[in-house]
Amino acid sequence: MMAMIKSNAYGHGLVVIAKLLSKKYRGVWFGVDSITEAVRLRDEKIKNPILVLGYTLPRRLSEAVKKDIIITISHFEGIRGLVRLKNLPRFHLKFDTGMHRQGFQESDVPKLIRELKRFGLNPDGIYSHFSTASNRAFSEKQIQVFERMVGEVKRAGIPPGILHMNKTEGIINFPQSTYDMVRLGIGLYGYYPAKGVRLKPVMAWKTIVSEVKQVGKGEWVSYDRTERVGRDSKIAILPIGYWHGFDRGLSSKGEVLIRGLRARVLGRVTMDMTMVDVTRISGVGVGDEVVILGRQAPLEARRRRHLPRFGRGPLTGQGKDAVSADDIAKKINTTAYEVLTRINPLIRKISV
Known about the structure:
Blueprint: E1 2-4, H1 6-10, H2 14-24, E2 29-32, H3 35-43, E3 50-52, H4 61-66, E4 71-73, H5 76-83, E5 91-94, H6 109-119, E6 125-127, H7 136-155, E7 162-164, H8 168-173, E8 183-184, E9 205-208, E10 211-215, E11 220-221, E12 227-228, E13 233-238, E14 255-258, E15 261-264, E16 274-277, E17 289-295, H9 299-304, E18 322-323, H10 325-331, H11 336-341
């Protein structure tokens, strides 16, 4: 299996996730976006096989050789870049079977075979990517195209190496394209890109209340007087904003959990701070835990783990509600992928 830890492990922390998985599953592969991510893993003593799925600049190919990093070749310029090297990195070929992003197209295969034979190149693997794994008819067409292309390579006497195509949805929907390896992406983190499969998210994202104040009826909140309160209100200020990955689109409609209850964002999300309405949540005080993603643990469990305090009032609703990346995505018309990957990499990650 290849664990997709590209893009900072979908916002979960590249090194944290790699170390957890490599310790538990020694044979797992890692898929990353760039040579930069791959080199960082090697510098952290991660020895598992690493495939760079994105483009690698020619000047960095020597790093791939030195650190035993496998790169992707998806066009003829990539092949020409390889053959200029004295020592070649290992590589996988990427085939475009219908998404029309990276990859050699079916019409390229005859020329590709000639180039591989001309320079004596054998790939360590060949892979493709589903455009829309929830569309069965189109995905099956992609599988057929992939198998035709791989078949041509095999008939030319070139060993294809490891074949892989399935991502999270494909693993469940298309067992016929399991091949030699699967690439587990968003599912690794407890999300599924379509309805019908329920997984448990593995990450909670938290901050604290940094200030609490009373605001009179009719007063305005945030930049440009974004929102006017219709009653005397109690607001909590959170030290988190769009710089941290809490999207500006959540202005006046995002929700967080404080003391187990939902608190709505008031006014515009700013760069480093956000205001929320806690008028109906009793006992909120400075230092209280705020859950941005996930579920708030009951008070007794939190005391045992020495986590941030709750306020002084009753704990109504504690532990019964949760906020997911899908919930946030619906509010800002995007996907859980974007919500997760935009979490600032500088935010501290804690493994529990």
